[in-house]
From TrEMBL:
It holds the Pfam family START. It comes from Gymnorhina tibicen. This is ACO12 thioesterase. InterPro entries: START-like_dom_sf, START_lipid-bd_dom, START_lipid_transfer. Residues 16-190 form the START domain. Gene3D superfamilies: 3.30.530.20. PROSITE patterns: START. GO terms for molecular function: lipid binding. GO terms for cellular component: cytoplasm. PANTHER family: PHOSPHATIDYLCHOLINE TRANSFER PROTEIN, START DOMAIN-CONTAINING PROTEIN.
Amino acid sequence: QAYLSYSNIAALTHLARKSGWDITRTLDNVKIWTHEEGAVLSFKVEMRVKVPSHVAFSLLSDFRLRQRWDRHFLTCEVLQAVSEEEKIYHVTAPPTTGHKPRDFVILVSQRQPCRPQEPYTVAVRSVTLRAVPPSPEFCRSEILCAGFQIHSDGSSSCTVCYFNQVTAGVMPYLAANLTGSSKSIEDTALECIRFLE
């Protein structure tokens, strides 16, 4: 478990530090970037939020609140509180056209910064839990690496960066989006900002 938690945080930190991100869209408070490497597509959504970084961290690290702003989350329950900083959740997502609803078993690891210039981190990856085997009513999907980095911009504002390394399981939700025919990433980001503020 300690190794999984460490690698969860390390994978997100590594993804955030990659060079070669291409900006694809800019709104007032939202920027969307993509990064392609072989068959792996990653994206980053940068949001400017008028709340202190520790408040954003507290709200974003509790995934049970995610349904209040992310319509891709139908349900979310805590399966296991591994420690104060690690929880395992079961998440269900609505069906996309022609597919069954999806579900995910994820480990969410949260870390406060050790030094002032470091971000708050909320890292997410899929795990296998014997107690929750795949169910016939859902298509079990996988998250390789996702999560938030929250950088303080002063006492009353912060920049929230959401990262996701896209797998085939998440692709149906994003395909229309990245080609520009849908605005669900933008809309979700704006809902997230509204929720945090």
